[in-house]
Amino acid sequence: MLKIGVLGAGHLGKIHLKLLQQSEKYELVGFYDENLENGAKIAAEFGYKQFHTIATLLHAVDVIDIITPTLSHYKCAKVALKSGKHIFIEKPISNTVAEAEEIIAIAEEMKLLGQVGHVERFNPAFQAVREKINNPMFIETHRLAEFNPRGTDVPVVLDLMIHDIDVILSVVNSKVKAVHASGVSVISETPDIANARLEFENGCVANLTASRISLKNMRKSRFFQKDAYISVDFLEKKCEVVKMKDAPENPGDFDMILQNAEGVKKQIYFENPDVKPNNAILDELETFADAITNQTRPVVSLSDGTEALRIAYQIIESYSK
């Protein structure tokens, strides 16, 4: 088992601690939180071992799980990698693309692996249709959240939209050639609602919307490709696949048949893929353990996390002009 330590024991950090303690692939050694008083309370309540310096925690583990505020990701990743430790780092990978690129360079120099916590890749609804998404040419995503003052310290693109950016980049096998975006500030100093249009070299277009002042929560994506439409509800963990095939010569009474202007007839049919319940956070952590053990590419590599951050900043720059 890999020995792992957690940096940061806030809301998400406590979830990671609980799951790592349950994991069969890690031995949870303990955690460090810069608020030592808060750390002492967590240690007393849950029984996790509290370390009083990052250095002592680093010395005791093989892997570091970085769940600190984004501004400190670079510093924490750098010290962990320089100490010879693999890193799991919560999204976004860092505060700037330059920092992210340096994290990649240090990891390569030290021959260490890193994974970024883009957890929607492990959402069971997305997992159920991932292999069915093949060369999509139009994608539409909506990620809407009710207002929470805790989330306004970072731009809505880095807080919410970046999830969908990563998912889209993982299924479109092409480079982004153009970014157009708009943003509106309603409550915060930075936009609370953002819309972006990504144009890819292969002709695919993605339209993304994110809001943190919605009246209801929504996390939906739709993928359109030749002869298929795929929808994923990341919040409700549901998915649907609508496909078309050549219509039979003698369709049944209940068959859905469409005929285009050229007279070609197509039959529409529905698939409801089996969505297998999982804990996405535990899965992302354990696939990273597998990558370390087998020396394979992590599901969400440091490069993946950097590319999502790069596109996110291009969107921010586009609506800031």
From TrEMBL:
Positions of the Gfo/Idh/MocA-like oxidoreductase N-terminal domain: 2-118
Residues passing through the membrane, by range: none
InterPro entries: Gfo/Idh/MocA-like_OxRdtase_N (IPR000683), Gfo/Idh/MocA_Oxidoreductases (IPR051450), GFO_IDH_MocA-like_dom (IPR055170), NAD(P)-bd_dom_sf (IPR036291)
GO molecular-function term, one example from the UniProt record: nucleotide binding
Pfam family, one: GFO_IDH_MocA_C3
Superkingdom, taxonomy of origin: Bacteria
All residue ranges annotated as the GFO/IDH/MocA-like oxidoreductase domain in the record: 156-216
PANTHER family according to UniProt: BILIVERDIN REDUCTASE A
Protein name: Oxidoreductase
Species of provenance: Flavobacterium aurantiibacter
